[in-house]
């Protein structure tokens, strides 16, 4: 399927990238100097790789979509930590925004030209030292009664765990799209679906038609979710970073009803080559 203007879904499998220290430093050197301390602060190599690849994806995607020279790309963060692009003028994509996520083997990014976009990636890892029921019980306060019942009735312990991660993934994508911080009450969100299609959200018990949600199976152990919604639902700090929050019903309906892009798998080598 041809890429829509301003719409991207990119992922990188970091297990395929085994850089030497010099190769890692060369990739990091492609980024603005102020981005590098946030990468270096991680102790574990995999965490440093995820942090680096997340930023490479952001700069490469902006460069690729908007044709902005790398040295002119200005990515800032809200007080809640949400990255956003500072744009002087972009009439073609009045509300261009993106979101990144990483867990397990994958780092990903999603972008949209009009609607808010949130991306979350989860690794369905079996809990260590506790049963699946004990593990998901730790998160029960973030789930509604309806969601909890759907999860515990999913079947085998593996199916229960996967069902939990589906709900968790969707909640995180929504909160990230809004630009909210960790203090947002996930229990306020309740998801309904038909076999994990036609997914809808109830916020504080009220259904909203301003959002769309999609789940993707990246492989046997990883899921991704996309949330797309009206810019007026952005938290205040993020709303200030957006060019406009005015979206017509027709625009909103069109983008929520359009077929969803599949994820394109990139290698780190491809990313760095596109930035040189």
Structure commentary:
- The radius of gyration is 19 Å and the shape is globular.
- 33% of the residues lie in helices and 26% in strands.
- The chain is an alpha+beta fold.
- The chain has a five-stranded antiparallel sheet with strand order 6-10-9-8-7, with helices on both faces. Strands 4-5-1-11 form a four-stranded mixed sheet. A two-stranded antiparallel ribbon has the order 2-3.
- α3 (45-66) packs across α9.
Secondary-structure blueprint:
Blueprint: E1 8-13, H1 21-28, H2 36-40, H3 45-66, E2 75-77, E3 83-85, E4 97-103, E5 106-112, E6 116-123, H4 132-137, H5 145-152, H6 157-178, E7 189-194, E8 197-203, E9 206-219, E10 222-229, H7 236-239, H8 249-257, E11 264-266, H9 268-275
Features of this protein?
276 residues, 11 strands, transferase, 4-stranded mixed β-sheet, holo-[acyl-carrier-protein] synthase, EC 2.7.8.7, alpha+beta
Radius of gyration: 19 Å
Mean pLDDT: 92
Give the oligomeric state: single chain
Beta-strand content bin: 25-35%
Distance, first to last CA: 27 Å
Largest sheet: 5 strands, antiparallel
**Which ranges are low-confidence, i.e. pLDDT below 50, for 5 or more consecutive residues?**
none
**Helices and strands, in N-to-C order?**
EHHHEEEEEHHHEEEEHHEH
What structural class is derived from the secondary structure elements? alpha+beta
Q: What is the β-strand count?
A: 11
Give helix % range.
Answer: 25-40%
Strand order of the largest sheet: 6-10-9-8-7
Overall, the morphology is globular
Number of helices: 9
